């Protein structure tokens, strides 16, 4: 039932609309028109005012004609940079960009699939229960759209986020994450004439970092310090340095423990400084942000059993997966909504080598159709 040519055309159309984070207004307008033309009711929430985007999250509701709990379907409208002026190239059934930008399959392959699935449902008069499509903004810069989603617009308690690669897997376990920022303040001085009068903020940062275990801590936990900025010139003792990083873990206690260990390392370096510590220097300001919570969907939850049954009906496999990444599904989980993450086939995302096979998008569309059919009949 999935029309591969139409799906490809829809995808081509969507990636031609620039929608980098905080600039999703144009694509939201087009999507609103498309779904309303199918008979859906739409709403745009106020998340844009909070995130700085030129639009809010787009919520699309199809009432359906079968009694069933509402089913959530999710994708995000924003892309990463370089994501302006995308020229999609289709060759041998594979979409790529022209090479100077990302492709935007993350996550417009998902949106194209959702449009195609709803089109097929309508044109074939296929019975289905209530469907709530949530298209978020600013996912790529911290899941901000989902975090500020107006939950009064949502009735569904479970569903699927289309935001992964594997078309035969469903992500049911994802880590929680903390974002960390350290601002170390030292004292500037001439590096050649009077270095003893300075307090080198970069050296203090180096000592703190040297005492840390970075990378994979164990099978559940990782941490990374990814940004360090400081210094003005080689002949000036640096008075300030900024370090940003993260901790992720599938275990909330380990997340807290590793976060606290990193904080302690920075604080102890300042506390144990042996030089002139007048005027409150050196000092460190610590900022910890709860980025997103863990996702842990039980194997026997409807989201899992429904996806596995749908795949089996199509003669395919569907395995539950653990990921180290975060998605809107993490935020939904913290709000009481179980959302398994399924793939669209997109590969090498966030790079100019990004690609997606039309056949993979078709496969996900077929899977989603089968899920919706089974869901409407109580599978």
Descriptive overview:
By secondary structure, the protein is α+β, with helices and mostly antiparallel strands. The chain has two domains: 4-174 and 294-376, 3-Layer(aba) Sandwich (Aminopeptidase); 176-290, 2-Layer Sandwich (Alpha-Beta Plaits). It is built from ten helices and 17 strands. The strands form three sheets. Strands 1, 2, 3, 6, 7, 8, 14, 15 and 16 form a nine-stranded mixed beta sheet that branches. Strands 10-11-12-9-13 form a five-stranded antiparallel beta sheet. Strands 4-5-17 form a three-stranded antiparallel beta sheet. A hairpin with a 2-residue loop joins strand 10 (215-218) and strand 11. Helix 4 (105-123) crosses helix 10 (358-376) and helix 8 (302-313) packs across helix 10. The longest helix has 20 residues, at 252-271. The radius of gyration is 24 Å and the shape is elongated. The two termini are 20 Å apart.
Q: Helix/strand-derived class? A: alpha+beta
Largest sheet: 9 strands, mixed
The total of helices stands at 10
H-E order: HHEHEEEEHEHEEEHEEEHEEHEHEEH
The count of domains is: 2
Mean pLDDT: 97
* Unreliable spans: none
- The fourth-level CATH homologous superfamily of the largest domain is Zn peptidases
Described by the principal axes of the CA atoms, the overall outline is elongated
- Helical residue percent band: 25-40%
Q: Can you count the beta strands?
A: 17
- CATH topology annotation of the largest domain: Aminopeptidase
- Euclidean distance between termini CA atoms: 20 Å
Strand content: 25-35%
Specify the CATH class of the largest domain: Alpha Beta
Q: Please tell me the CATH architecture of the largest domain by its name.
A: 3-Layer(aba) Sandwich
Radius of gyration, whole Å:
24 Å
């Amino acid at each position: 039932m999935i029309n591969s040519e139409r799906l490809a055309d829809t995808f081509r159309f969507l990636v031609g609309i620039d929608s980098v984070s905080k600039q999703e207004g144009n694509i939201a307008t087009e999507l609103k028109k498309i779904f309303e033309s199918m008979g859906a009711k739409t709403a745009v929430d106020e998340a844009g005012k909070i995130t700085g985007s030129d639009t809010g999250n787009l919520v699309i509701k199809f009432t359906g004609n079968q009694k069933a709990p509402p089913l959530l379907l999710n994708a995000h409208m924003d892309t990463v940079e370089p994501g302006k002026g995308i020229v999609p190239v289709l060759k041998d059934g594979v979409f790529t960009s022209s090479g100077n930008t990302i492709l935007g399959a993350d996550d417009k392959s998902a949106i194209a699939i959702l449009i195609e699935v709803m089109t097929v449902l309508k044109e074939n008069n296929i019975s289905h229960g209530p469907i709530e499509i949530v298209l978020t903004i600013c996912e790529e810069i911290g899941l901000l759209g989902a975090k500020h989603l107006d939950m009064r617009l949502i009735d569904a308690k479970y569903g699927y986020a289309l935001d992964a690669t594997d078309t035969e897997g469903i992500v049911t376990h994802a880590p929680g994450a903390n974002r960390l920022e350290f601002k170390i303040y030292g004292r500037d001085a001439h590096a050649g004439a009077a270095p003893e009068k300075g307090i080198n903020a970069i050296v203090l940062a180096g000592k703190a970092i040297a005492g840390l275990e970075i990378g994979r801590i164990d099978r559940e936990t990782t941490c990374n310090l990814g940004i360090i900025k400081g210094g003005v010139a080689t002949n000036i003792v640096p008075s300030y340095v900024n370090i940003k990083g993260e901790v992720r873990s599938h275990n909330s206690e380990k997340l807290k423990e590793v976060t606290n260990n990193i904080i302690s390392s920075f604080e102890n370096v300042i506390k144990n400084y042996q030089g002139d510590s007048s005027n409150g220097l050196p000092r460190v300001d610590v900022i910890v942000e709860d980025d997103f919570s863990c996702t842990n969907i039980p194997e026997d939850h409807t989201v899992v059993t429904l996806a596995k049954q749908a795949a089996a009906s199509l003669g395919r496999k569907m395995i539950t997966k653990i990921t180290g990444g975060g998605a809107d599904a993490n935020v939904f989980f913290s709000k009481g909504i179980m959302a398994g993450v399924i793939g669209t086939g997109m590969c090498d995302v966030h790079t100019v080598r990004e690609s997606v096979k039309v056949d993979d998008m078709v496969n996900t569309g077929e899977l989603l159709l089968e899920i919706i059919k089974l869901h409407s009949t109580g599978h």
